[in-house]
Write a structure and sequence with these properties.
Oligomer: single chain
CATH class: Alpha Beta
Strand content: 15-25%
Order of helices and strands: HEEEHHEH
Number of domains: 1
Largest sheet: 4 strands, mixed
CATH topology: Nucleotidyltransferase, domain 5
Structural class: alpha+beta
Number of helices: 4
Length: 122
C-alpha cells in the first residue's frame, strides 16, 4: 500500500513540474491527455478562464458505439482524431501539449500523432 502512495506522489510531482512549463491561453489552449489502464481522454483547456473548450474520450458514447477496447494505441489514435476534428470545428488550430506525467510513447504518442494529422499544431 505504501508503495502505491509513493507512486501516486511521484506522478503528482511530475504533473506539477510539467504544468509549470505548459499553460493554456485563449490563443493557444492546452491539450491535456489523461490515460488509465482501460481508457484515454483528451481535453482542450483555456487556463485563463478555467474552461474546457472540448473533450474526447474512449468513455464517450460515440466511441463506445463501435464496441472497441479503449486501452490500446488504436483507441488512442481514434480519440486524437476526434479531438482534432472538434478543435478545428471550434476554430482552434494551435495547442500546447500536456502529457500529464506520462511518457511520450505508446498511446500518448499515438493520440498526439492523430491530433496532428487532424490539423492541430503543437
Amino acid at each position: 500500500m505504501r508503495s502505491q502512495i509513493r507512486k501516486q506522489v511521484r506522478r503528482g510531482r511530475r504533473i506539477v513540474r510539467g504544468r509549470k512549463k505548459v499553460r493554456g491561453t485563449p490563443e493557444r489552449p492546452r491539450l491535456a491527455v489523461t490515460r488509465s489502464l482501460r481508457h484515454i481522454q483528451a481535453q482542450i483547456i483555456d487556463d485563463d478562464t478555467g474552461r474546457t473548450l472540448c473533450s474526447a474520450s474512449t468513455r464517450s458514447k460515440s466511441f463506445a458505439a463501435g464496441g472497441a477496447y479503449g486501452g490500446n494505441a488504436k483507441a488512442a489514435a481514434a480519440v486524437g482524431q476526434m479531438i482534432g476534428e472538434m478543435a478545428k470545428s471550434k476554430g482552434i488550430e494551435q495547442v500546447a501539449f500536456d502529457r500529464r506525467g506520462s511518457r511520450y510513447h505508446g498511446r500518448v504518442k499515438a493520440l498526439a500523432d492523430a491530433a496532428r494529422a487532424a490539423g492541430l499544431k503543437f
